[in-house]
Each structure stands twice: as C-alpha cells, then as structure tokens.
Amino acid sequence: MSAHGGNKAILAALAANLGIAITKFVAYLLTHSSSMLAESVHSLADSGNQVLLLVGGRRASREADEQHPFGYGRARYLYAFVVSIVLFSLGGLFALYEASHKWADPHPIESWKWVPVVVLVAAIVMEGLSFRTATREAAPQRGTQSWARFVRTTKSPELPVVLLEDAGALVGLVFALLGVSLTLVTGNGRWDAAGTACIGVLLVVIAGVLATEMKSLLLGESATPEDVRRIREALVGPGVASVIHLRTMHLGPEEVLVAAKIEVEATELASEVADAIDAAEARVRAAVSVTTVIYLEPDLRH
User: Fold this and answer.
1) Of 211, 160, 225, 165, nearest to 5 (Cα)?
2) Where are the beta strands (DSSP E) in 12-126?
3) Which end of the chain is more exposed for a tag (fewer CB within 10 A), N or C?
4) What's the order of all strands across the beta sheet hosting 291-299?
5) What SS3 state is found at 299?
C-alpha cells in the first residue's frame, strides 16, 4: 500500500467522522439517548485516531540519524497501537459505562423522538461512503486474500485500522439504530442501554484485534513468505552457491532488513567475494518491491 493511498482513506474517514460526531452529539443533546452519546464519543475517538495515524505517517518519514540508524518507519506501528488503546478506553469502556448507567436508570426518549433515527440513517450513509473508499484503496494490496487474512498479514497499519474502524462504526450504528427504535416503539429505555452495551463490546473486541496485530508488527515481523522466497532465490547467483540461513524483519511497512549467511567457494579471492556480494544485493533489490537494508556474511558450507 502506498502512503498516498493510506492517507486518502484516513482523510475520507476523518472528514466523515468529524461531521458524524457533531451531528450525533446534537441529537444526544435533544434526546438524551445513551446510544447517541456512545456513538458521539465513538466518532470522536475515531476522529482522534485518524489524526494519530496521520501524525504517525509524518513521524515515520523522518530520515535516519545517529540515534535511530534504521530510521523511524516503526512509528506508524506505534501510533496505530495507540489507536487501539484510544478505541478501547475512550470508545469501548465509555460506552459500557454509559450502558450500565442507563440500565440502572432507564428513561424513554421523550422529546425530538425521531431525530436519532434520522441522524443514525444519515450516519450509516456517510460511514458507508468512507468504508467504500477504504476498501477501494485496500483492494490492490489485498488481491485475492480474504479481508480477515489481509488484516492479519498486511505490514501497513493504516488501511487495516481504517477498515476495522469503519466496519465497527457501521455495525455500531446498526446497534444504536435498533436500540433507539425499540426504545421509541416500547417506551422502555433499557433497549437504548442494550444498544449502547453492544456498541461498547464491539469496540473493545475491535481494539483487542488491532492491539494484537500492531503488537506483532512492533515486535518485528518477517517479510511476507512470497518476499522471503524471492529474496532467497535472488541471493543465489554467480559467486553465491547457496543460502545457509536467512533472516528478514520489517523496519517499517515499506522497508525490510535482510540478514543472510551465504555460501561462497573456498578458492575465491576476497575481491571476487566482494563482487559476488554486491551482485547478490543488486539482485535482491530488483526482486522485491520493498526497500531493503541488506547485510550478507560470506561463509563456507561445512
């Protein structure tokens, strides 16, 4: 995924969430619906998360320096991990708290009764447009993978975060719409509380999935199996008989560290080994689309 594509999806989600958050909060002030308040905070949290992703992208683009010789690419993973924490605490836990409060003191929606329904339907339309933008931007990288596998295996954090947030927002809006509608029909405010609780559980689950995936990337994931295969094949060539062992690690979404021990002939001169290493590095960079930092150790196979 290009940074441009990720930013396009983030900006689309940010614009949608800011507008939706304001509209939902006005609806809450008019109706005092707990589902509307939970959804307002949800959209506000999502807006903050998109800002965090943009900040992470800017921080990651900084040049390598003496203190960080491999650059700042992992900043994108760090900020995406912070997103999961914000989604869990500000979104999920607040919704669960509000649900418990409303369940203990249920009251029907007594004024501006159909405002929440109109707002939620409009929000579903706007979130749907944002979700469509995210899926379109993710489609080239996803290829033929399922969406679940794409979220688990991609090395770029922005699109999975936006996809999960938008999908969660759409499902959360449906929960809110059901809770509000049943409250209006039955006059029982506990339906509103139940819708709010469902939103809270949904956000906690999504935050857990995001935190798990971002933790793995922060710890350092290897290149994809396809890229590892290409790197291994590219290393073998004139002067390099085989690969004794190979290690890869993503330094960022578009940068991979390659460390390998390669087999050379005992009869080769030092200059010939150096030329073979240079040629192997060139082959690897031509074989994979990601930027590579390569360290090769020549050795004899015993």
Assistant:
1) 160
2) none
3) C
4) 242-252, 255-263, 291-299
5) strand
- The Cα 158–Cα 53 span in angstroms is 7
pLDDT in tens, 57-81: 888 888 888 888 888 888 888 988 8
**Range of the structural domain that residue 89 is part of:** 3-219
* b/e 248-266 (16+ beta carbons within 10 angstroms → b): bbbbbbbbbbbebebbbee
- Kindly report the pTM of this predicted structure: 0.78
Do 72 and 134 share a domain, yes or no? Answer: yes
Find where tokens 């959360």 sit.
Answer: 172
Residue 102's nearest CA partner among 34, 204, 155, 37 is 34
Average pLDDT score over residue span 210-214: 88
Nearest residue to 170 (alpha-carbon basis) of 34, 15, 47, 17: 17
The C-alpha R_g of the chain, in whole angstroms, comes to 25
Within the chain, what is the greatest distance between any pair of CA atoms? 90
Amino acid residing at 256: V
Q: Please tell me whether residues 240 and 205 are part of one structural domain.
A: no
The number of distinct structural domains making up the chain is 2
Does the structure show a pLDDT above 90 at 48? no
CATH number, domain at 64?
A: 1.20.1510.10
Name residue, tokens 């030329």.
Answer: 275
Encoded tokens for 233:
């094949």
- pLDDT score, position 6: 61
C-beta separation of 149 from 174 below 8 A: no
